[in-house]
Design brief:
The complex is a heterodimer of chains A (130) and B (284).
Chain A: E1 4-9, E2 14-20, E3 22-27, E4 30-35, E5 41-45, E6 48-54, E7 57-63, E8 66-70, E9 75-79, E10 82-84, H1 90-105, H2 111-128
Parallel strand pairs in A: 1-9
Antiparallel strand pairs in A: 1-2, 3-4, 3-6, 5-8, 6-7, 7-10, 8-9
Chain B: H1 2-56, E1 76-81, H2 91-106, E2 111-116, H3 118-126, E3 130-135, H4 144-159, E4 165-173, E5 179-187, E6 202-204, H5 207-283
Parallel strand pairs in B: 1-2, 1-4, 2-3
Antiparallel strand pairs in B: 4-5
Helix pairs in contact in B: 1-5, 4-5
Classes of the chains: A alpha+beta (130), B alpha/beta (284).
Amino acid sequence: MSTFQLEIVTPTKILDEGYIEHVRCPGLDGYFGIMANHRGAIIAIGIGEIKVTQNGKDHYLATSGGFIEISKAKVELLLETYERADTIDIQRAESAMQRAKERKQAKDIDIARNKASLLRAVNRLKVSRR
Amino acid sequence: MAKLKDIRNRIKSVKSIQKVTQAMKMVAAAKMRRAQERMEEARPYADRLSGVIYNLLPDVERELLDLLDVREVKRVGYVVVSSDRGMAGSFNTNILKKAQNEIDAIGKKIVDVFCIGKKARDHFKRRDYTIIESHTDFWNELSFGHAIKMGDVIISHFTNKYVDEIHVVYNEFINVASQKIQSDILLPLVFDEEADQITGRLYEPNKEDIIKSLIPRHLNIQMWKYLLESYASEQAARMVAMENATDNANDMIKNLTLQFNKARQAAITTEMLEIVSGAEALKK
């Protein structure tokens, strides 16, 4: 299977994933997959899980969003944050979820922000179970 | 003889001060290196992000986004990035002076101040400026989360139309020996319209939505950049200040030792003179 180079760039680190076969990302309108020789594109990414297939094996990342830039030379994921499935702090995610759920009852809160943090927590828990 | 003891005590105290300044210098050097590394790490993300925004902006209607909204300036927001601690030479003095000059030029009454670092808070509080928010005591565990938190408040202050412009005054890290005080306009965003256009690219879901999701991220990373630059500058300034202090302590120790030796010599001479003249007197 033909491969392509994937790099993950965040504000605090750069990770070179090396050559991979497939990456599946959470777009704003649903999941999409990228394979080698994709046409150049910029696609926004929302909260969700990223699946990277390398040498026939999958691994998963949780992200809070960003975008993907596809060019001939390589594919770059520019993410605000990401966590590998095996490094997610489940307790922290659970307590974040709890907090967000409690805040739902309260009035005068930023509903959009609370919803986003709830989504992030749920997503991290989901990915951590991979 | 009291004088000898005084000098000895002074040498001792200068030496212990020197130990402190030496240690502070080392700590600042280590922290500065770390901050520099983080600046390097943040750069690629920031560059790509602004690259994409530059690329898309000419195709997007400015009215679409309130963060691009250029309004008539009636009220101005100022973000002043200082440090929590002193002992960093003129680091805080300079930044506060510059910020205050700029604010006073616009008019104290129509400026809202956001203070980052204790020094800025104390300075502007004492002088009765309108402080919207202060962030202190976070520099030691500085993380991207802080940038997002500060950015959110500052940005919503702009989008809620409390202010029509946001300025940021911070120290830019040039190298260890020099920091430059910068005053940037954070909002509304202005971009040079000439960017190399990449054509034939696919945009998903569409250019407008991409811009909408990118611009807040761009502002967050700008905030992060300001914090990192300032932190690295602070540590560099402290390192240089402490280095100078250590050198000065060295000079002082040298002078004091010289004085001490002279005094000791003088004491010995007088003592010998007394003995000799006493013996001389006995002979007669």
